[in-house]
Every structure is written in structure tokens, then in C-alpha cells.
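User: Here's a structure from my thesis project, written as C-alpha cells. My advisor, Dr. K., wants to see whether a designed sequence matches the one we expressed. Can you design one independently, without my sequence as a hint?
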């Protein structure tokens, strides 16, 4: 039996993007509790660069980016191709700018800034080279005091102890700012190490949650409603296998460790409908010395080869598209493409290092573990990765032949604005994944097509990773969770990767996952506050 019962107006399950919904509810006078399964705040959002794909928002206008909402709507319609998601898309496009306007009024959130990341489907009408992505400002941990150690570390730090720098940036900055703003409303509380067990139902309405809090069962009532913002189920092997989310084991996911689908399963148990459960936000990942991959935005030098030693794609394709291409070829060709092999040479290592300062060689554990291997000849390299030497040599020679022409005749690397960003950007603006270390100027007509001809040669492993599953609870535009008959479950809301993605099976641009988490947790809070203040539902956002 539960040890006792507490009562709040709103309970938010999860402490990633849902913290913004919690802040929105608390700032409107609703007593709000955030419960977090792990011992730190942030979930997968804390791992991210916290890009927010918010077309037509104020930070874009301040930067002189004047995208038209109808054009962006057309872009979404074209790439998603699913009329059932159009209401969610419209709600997303309307709400993003409004949300940022509100957050920027609070000094804890500060000013968001534009980061030039091109949209991911450059050949589709409405895509822009300038992109639609904005980022939170960094913050000194000292500003949030005792809360700072409670913010989840970056994934490379959790895996290998890599240094994170003296400031909180990207997702860690967003979480720190949202947490501080939430608590300073005077209406916000939290419980760490508190895992959702089930939803409490009275009649047809969700009125709270049962959870295990530091080993003790607790019962928490929510007089207005519960927002499920607990991430996806990417770290749950059984659910991945059940719903056919490749790779089924989930060991390569870059999702936060607590993301095992507890919220999804609790909602399904009371009759919630689901969608897109076979889908994930895919990314190529460079396998680390410990065996786990870390999100890799693409390779600007060298090539990727499959188990036959053959190059098979543009290695700079936007990452979700790259992951899906790996998966398609793996399934359709009878040749293993997951994992694949990244082949490069000393020229690359001297210029870009391997995720660190070019003046500092890769750490010994990279070679000791076999995560990074080297050979003096192509034939020796082929033997190391068990591919036919003649096929690997042919792939390298074919790629090298493109260098003087400046044209990748097979896969056209370096021809899109997205590819060309790799010449100038260190990873993503404000991002945690430091992949590209120096501006690329190597004397070749197309700097992204330079030969692999400077021994020794190196190979690393590229796995099919993900930054979360994207299938989940079916919701309406107010983030209300729906039953199979399309009617909302009163008192229950979902956002982020706990809900089925508004973008369906595609990834429109940098910041769509985190942006969706913020938008729909915010819309849930507005709906809850509208009910609390007026006795009716919230009018449509204009």
C-alpha cells in the first residue's frame, strides 16, 4: 500500500522538455510537481544541442530570417505526407513563436539565438538554406547553485568522463534555465528517483499517478491533470522487439537511461491509442571504446563502406536520413550495412583529430579497445575489418578519382548547403558533439572530397543509433491523449517522445524533437490552465 497521498494541480512525468510545460503551468498559478525516474534532470534533452525548430519565431526575425509560415506549412505537408498529422503540425507552427515570446520575458530563460542549420530536405518546396533553428543561451553553473550537480551530463561524459567545459550549454543550459524558472514561480516542486508505476483513474478521468519514490510506493493526486513527458521506449529491448524498432536490442541508442516506456505502458493500460511505434529518430553513431555509439552528424572526410568493402552513400547526408538509408540498404541488399566502417587517413587525423583537439592524439583506449584501428596499407586495413581487399581498394580509388574534379560522381557529397556546413561548423552551433574541429581548406576544388592517400590508414565503426523512439501516444492538437475512438482521456496529456511525433516518419530540421517536447508540454499546460481559470477549454491559439 502507498505510504501516503500528496495532492497537486498538475503532475508532470519526466524532466526533459516537459520542464517547460511544468513552468508554464506553475507560472499560471497551478501547483505543479515534476517526477523524474533517475537521479538527475534533463533526460535526452540534456544530451542534445537543444536546437528548437521554430519557424517564424522572434530570434529568427532578429537575425533577419523572414520565413513565411505558409511556406513552412507546405514544406511539412510535403515531406510528412500524412493528413492525419496536419492538425498537430499547425498547432506546432502556431505555438513555437508564442512559446518563445513568453519564455524570453523570463530572465531565467534569457534570449534565444538563431543558429544557421539548413532544413533537412533541401530539394523539397519550402526548405530553406538558412533553416529555422534557434538555441538557448549558455549559463554559468554558479547561477543555479545547488541545482547544478542535478543536471544530467552530456552523453560522452557519462560514457567516458569526457570534459564538458566550464559552462552549461545546449540542452543542459535549457534544462538548468527551465528548472530554475519553474522553482522560482513558488508553485513548483520535484521528486527525483521517482518512477511512474500507473495512472490513477476515477470514472473516465485521470486524477493522479502511483509511483515508486526512492523505494517507497507513493500516490500523488493531480486535480487538473497529468502530463506524460517521459521520453520514448528506446532503452527497452522488449518493446523495441515487439514494435520492430531497429536495431531491436537498443544497446546503441543515445536516449537517456530512464527511457524505457513506463509512461507509454501506463497510458496504454487505461485505453490510450498509439501511433508510429516502429519509428525512431535515427542517427549514425561512432562506436566508443566502451562499445556504445555517440551521435555523429556526418563525416566530411574519408568514406563509409559496408561488409563488402563498398562505399554506399553520401556520408554527409542529414543524420536521420543517413540512418534510414543504412537501414534500407541493410534490409534490402543482403549485405550488412549495420554497422559499417569509416575509412580515413592520417591527413584527416592531423586536421580533425577524432572528436578532440587536433593537437592531442586520440586517447590510448581508442586503440586498445579496437574502437579505432590503423594499418600501413589498404590490404592490412581490409584484413582488420574483414572485407575483401580488392573491393576496399576499388572503393578508395574510385573516391580518390573525384578529388581533382571536385565532384563526387556517385553520391554527390558536398553539393548541398547542409553538406557545405561541414566545412565551417564545429558540430552543431552550441552542440555537445564536437566532430568538426577546423575550417576545411585543403586545396581541393570540393574540400569535402579529398583523397584518402596519406598512410597510415584508420577505421572506426559507425553503428545505427537513435536519439529516441518517435512513436507513442496518439494526441490531439492540445496534447490530450486519445482513446482508440478518438475521444480524449480526461486529465491526461503527452508530449515529446511519449507522444507520436507530429512530423510522422521524417525529421524536418534541427530541433524538431526537442521543439515538439516544448511545444506540446506547453500546450498541455495552457489547456490545463484554461480549464482551471475559466472552467472551459482553452481557445485556439491564433
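Assistant: Designed independently from the structure alone:
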Amino acid at each position: 500500500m502507498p505510504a501516503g497521498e500528496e495532492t497537486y494541480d498538475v503532475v508532470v512525468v519526466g524532466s526533459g522538455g516537459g520542464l517547460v510545460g511544468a513552468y508554464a503551468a506553475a507560472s499560471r498559478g497551478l501547483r505543479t510537481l515534476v517526477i523524474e525516474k533517475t537521479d538527475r534532470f534533463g533526460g535526452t534533452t540534456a544530451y542534445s544541442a537543444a536546437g528548437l525548430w521554430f519557424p517564424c519565431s522572434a530570434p529568427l526575425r532578429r537575425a533577419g530570417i523572414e520565413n513565411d509560415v505558409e511556406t513552412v506549412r507546405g514544406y511539412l505537408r510535403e515531406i510528412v505526407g500524412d493528413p492525419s498529422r496536419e492538425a498537430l503540425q499547425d498547432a506546432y507552427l502556431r505555438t513555437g513563436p508564442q512559446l518563445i515570446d513568453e519564455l524570453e520575458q523570463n530572465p531565467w530563460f534569457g534570449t534565444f539565438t538563431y543558429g544557421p542549420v539548413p532544413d533537412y530536405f533541401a530539394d523539397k518546396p519550402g526548405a530553406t538554406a538558412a533553416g529555422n533553428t534557434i538555441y538557448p543561451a549558455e549559463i554559468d553553473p554558479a547561477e543555479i547553485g545547488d541545482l547544478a550537480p542535478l543536471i544530467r551530463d552530456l552523453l560522452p561524459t557519462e560514457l567516458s568522463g569526457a570534459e564538458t567545459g566550464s559552462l552549461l550549454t545546449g540542452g543542459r543550459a535549457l534544462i538548468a534555465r527551465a528548472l530554475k524558472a519553474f522553482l522560482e514561480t513558488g508553485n513548483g516542486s520535484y521528486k527525483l528517483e521517482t518512477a511512474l508505476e500507473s495512472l490513477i483513474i476515477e470514472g473516465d478521468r485521470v486524477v493522479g499517478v502511483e509511483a515508486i519514490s526512492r523505494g517507497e510506493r507513493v500516490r500523488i493526486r493531480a486535480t487538473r491533470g497529468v502530463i506524460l513527458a517521459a521520453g520514448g521506449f528506446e532503452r527497452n529491448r522488449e518493446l523495441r522487439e515487439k514494435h520492430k524498432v531497429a536495431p531491436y536490442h537498443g544497446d546503441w541508442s543515445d536516449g537517456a537511461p530512464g527511457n524505457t516506456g513506463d509512461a507509454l505502458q501506463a497510458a496504454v493500460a487505461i485505453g490510450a491509442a498509439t501511433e508510429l511505434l516502429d519509428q525512431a529518430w535515427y542517427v549514425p553513431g561512432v562506436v566508443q571504446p566502451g562499445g556504445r555509439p555517440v551521435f555523429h552528424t556526418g563525416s566530411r572526410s574519408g568514406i563509409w563502406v559496408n561488409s563488402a568493402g563498398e562505399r554506399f552513400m553520401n556520408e554527409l547526408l542529414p543524420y536521420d536520413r543517413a540512418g534510414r538509408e543504412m537501414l534500407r540498404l541493410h534490409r534490402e541488399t543482403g549485405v550488412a550495412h549495420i554497422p559499417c566502417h569509416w575509412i580515413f587517413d592520417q591527413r584527416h587525423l592531423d586536421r580533425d583529430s577524432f572528436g578532440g583537439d587536433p593537437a592531442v592524439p586520440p586517447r590510448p583506449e581508442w586503440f586498445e579497445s579496437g574502437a579505432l584501428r590503423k594499418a600501413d596499407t589498404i590490404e592490412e586495413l581490409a584484413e582488420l575489418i574483414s572485407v575483401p581487399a580488392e573491393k576496399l581498394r576499388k572503393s578508395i580509388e574510385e573516391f580518390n578519382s573525384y578529388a581533382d574534379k571536385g565532384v563526387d560522381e556517385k553520391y554527390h557529397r558536398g553539393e548541398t548547403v547542409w553538406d557545405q556546413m561541414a566545412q565551417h561548423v564545429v558540430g552543431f552551433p552550441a552542440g555537445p558533439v564536437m566532430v568538426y574541429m577546423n575550417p576545411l581548406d585543403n586545396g581541393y576544388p570540393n574540400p569535402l572530397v579529398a583523397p584518402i592517400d596519406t598512410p597510415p590508414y584508420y577505421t572506426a565503426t559507425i553503428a545505427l543509433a537513435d536519439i529516441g523512439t518517435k512513436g507513442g501516444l496518439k494526441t490531439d492538437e492540445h496534447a490530450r491523449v486519445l482513446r482508440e475512438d478518438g475521444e480524449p482521456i480526461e486529465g491526461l496529456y503527452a508530449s515529446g517522445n511519449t507522444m507520436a511525433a507530429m512530423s510522422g516518419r521524417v525529421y524536418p530540421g534541427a530541433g524538431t524533437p526537442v521543439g515538439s517536447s516544448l511545444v506540446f508540454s506547453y500546450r498541455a499546460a495552457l489547456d490545463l490552465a484554461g480549464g482551471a481559470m475559466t472552467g472551459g477549454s482553452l481557445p485556439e491559439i491564433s
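When you compare it with your expressed construct, this may help: Residues 426-437, 532-542 have pLDDT under 50 and may be disordered.
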